[in-house]
Specification:
The chain is mostly helical. It has two domains: 89 residues, no CATH class; 310 residues, no CATH class. Helix content is 68%, strand content 3%. It is built from 18 helices and three strands.
């Protein structure tokens, strides 16, 4: 019996790894589709490869050789690769290379991984590009594993349809594809806290360990960069919050347990953020208080309400632009926003025709929480969102779009299942039921207590 169970687990593990590898190759690309930010990581690879020491603890830099920056708009070659100079350091004189810029806005943990990869490739007599390709492949693999983990946890907490939809929406999204293996953005770090938050929901008896993982994953995300941190932190508690609200409405005994889980996950998420920013502040100015003040005035204000001291055209516009104008720019005046708004409107129309009040309430709350999580950065980082419109469209997938598509398909499938059952089409009705049926009670941790 034990041998059979062990073999079954090995088979499942092999299937998961195979799916992760195949998915990672879907996300992997030789050159980044969002190159500007990746220049900083590429320069760390180059610095390591030519033996250039980094003066300080911050892991994101730009290099300069004479008047030419190793990574930047001036670094293109005849085939259009703006990363050419950054990843061909062997073609330059190491003595002529200088550090042009050190990025102080974050710790730059991903840069230190790149620095180590560059040193490894140099010791193995491999070209610097090998470190770049290797790290991109590792990023894609980690993102694939994280995505599969979330899909599995959603299947356990809700149903198979939610897991399949979450996986496929991410897999087919051009936004996710552009960020999935990017060395600066480290896309898998956006979704790790959500994965561990779902594990708290499904395994509440082991929640202490998952709190530690939530804190560690948020700290890791912040050490790589603070962009989208509100979406990431809210993602860690989104489904716990949903279940807590529904438990209160249904007046069952799970509400207290779910509140403790929600509070614990939220505090763990905040602890990870606070620990990272305190370390960052200490390294930036020599004292935590002084560093926090410096970060507030130099970085936070610039990204949130805008900095009225800076008089560039973009800075002036961001100060004057309202939050509502930023929300309209994303939700109405962009293709992705219109798609998100369209799925939301379709869900609302179907809600009006739904007779199941319990499911309608649950779906409406899930949609609302998903929309709030995705829009949090648009609101709290108004200035950053206004300027980086070409980047922040990806926030619709953290995680509103997956939730909206899932609820839309679920409502349509419920109606289709009823029609097929009335017609006597057994196999289609069985397929719908297998996708929509909730997990067995013993698999749904918080639901079984």
């Amino acid at each position: 019996m034990l041998v059979t169970k062990h073999k079954s687990r090995v088979r499942i593990l092999c299937l998961v790894l195979a799916a992760a590898v195949l998915t990672s190759f879907k996300f992997f690309s030789l050159y980044s589709k969002e190159r500007d930010s990746e220049y900083y990581v590429g320069s760390m690879i180059s610095a390591s490869y030519i033996g250039k020491p980094i003066p300080g603890p911050f892991g994101l830099i730009l290099l300069r050789s004479g008047d030419e920056v190793f990574a930047g708009e001036t670094g293109g070659n005849e085939d259009g690769s703006a990363l050419y100079i950054a990843y061909h350091p062997q073609e330059f004189d190491p003595d002529a290379v200088e550090i042009d810029t050190v990025r102080l806005q974050q710790l730059g943990l991903q840069g230190w991984f790149a620095y180590g990869a560059g040193a490894l490739c140099r010791s193995l007599h491999l070209p610097a590009q090998a470190a770049y390709y290797l790290l991109r492949l590792v990023n894609a693999l980690f993102f694939s594993l994280t995505l599969l983990g979330i899909a599995w946890q959603l299947k356990k907490a809700y149903n198979a349809l939610f897991g399949v939809v979450f996986y496929l929406v991410c897999l087919l999204s051009t936004w996710i594809d552009a960020f999935a293996c990017n060395l600066y953005w480290v896309c898998f770090s956006w979704f790790l806290p959500m994965l561990f938050g779902l594990m708290v929901l499904n395994h509440p008896r082991k929640r202490g360990w998952f709190y530690l993982l939530i804190a560690a994953s948020v700290a890791f995300k912040c050490a790589c960069g603070y962009e989208y941190v509100t979406n990431v932190m809210l993602g860690s508690v989104l489904f716990l919050g949903l279940e807590w609200i529904c438990a209160i409405r249904e007046k069952n005994g799970r509400a207290k347990l779910l509140f403790r889980c929600l509070l614990g996950a939220g505090l763990a998420s905040f602890a990870g953020f606070a620990a990272t920013i305190c370390i960052h502040a200490r390294l930036r100015t020599g004292s935590i208080y002084g560093g926090l003040v410096d970060i507030l005035y130099c970085d936070v204000l610039r990204r949130t309400v805008g900095d009225p001291v800076i008089t560039t055209e973009n800075a002036v516009v961001t100060v004057k632009t309202s939050v509502l104008a930023v929300l309209a720019r994303y939700w109405i005046l962009s293709v992705t926003g219109l798609l998100a708004t369209g799925t939301l409107a379709a869900n609302l129309v179907l809600f009006l025709r739904s007779k199941d009040r319990r499911e309608r309430f649950r779906d409406a709350v899930m949609l609302l929480l998903g929309a709030l999580a995705s829009s949090s950065w648009f609101v709290l980082a108004k200035s950053h969102s206004y300027v980086h419109h070409h980047l922040n469209g990806v926030l619709f997938y953290l995680p509103f779009m997956q939730i909206s598509v899932y609820i839309l398909l679920k409502q349509l499938m419920c109606r289709f299942q009823s029609v097929e059952k009335a017609r006597g089409n057994g196999w289609t009705e069985h397929l719908c039921r297998s996708l929509l049926d909730k997990a067995p009670e013993e698999e749904r941790g918080a639901h079984s207590l």
